[in-house]
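Late entry, manganese (II) ion complex.
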Amino acid sequence: MTVLNDLVAALADGSVRVVDLTAPLHAGTPILTLPEPFGQTVPFQLQEISRYDDRGPAWYWNNISTGEHTGTHFDAPIHWVTGRTGPDVSQVPARRLIAPAVVIDHAAEAAADPDFLLEVEHVKAWEAEHGSLLAGGWLLYRTGWDAYGDDAEAYANGGRTPGISAECARWLAEEAPIQGVGVETVGTDAGGAPGFDPPFPCHSYLLGHDKYGLTQLRNLAQLPPTGAVVLAGPLPIVTGSGSPCRVLALVEG
Ligand code: MN
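Prediction complete; structure with ligand written out below:
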């Protein structure tokens, strides 16, 4: 297994770096709020069981409560009605949790216009410069929105957050070879996506085509446009629609 030995050596000497793309998970982690009358997810919470005290003199542990779609998390196909016959989060093949990733960076545009939408022409322009999107890979979409991740109000921005147009979402689902899209915002869809046709097009098209979503990613600025490998680790919640997820990237050089 020379490849794995080489990888371990490269990690040890720093020629391969590990970039953590995961937001810290705590009670203040931003969560999606839906308009009435829809059901709501709950904030992440810790409930202390014991902490070196009479409830457990030598040990500290907590119960946790969380929505599946809280913080950095993974959207499984079954999350959306278009993917309802698809895999739940426990059924996503482990093989697909390690995949190459490319990064398309529109942080400057999103800073100038929080309603900025990625279009097919942007992706094709990226491909003309960097090569084709990778089969079975992630398209990671940088908007700079991770900078607001510790301020729930700024992060939500009154519902105005950048995303992907309906036509681009359809194209990524139906015509691009990728296995999914990763974003820095609270969900894969733009803040204005409830009013798109179809509503929430990233969810609708991608999950309906057995593709995945990764959200609330951080540190995409530390990744090269091509060459990173992403390890995404959702919990295998049986029948679950998604899961909080540790997402790491391996980067050469
Ligand atoms: Mn989600």
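The CA atoms of residues 104 and 141 lie 5 Å apart. Will revisit in the morning.
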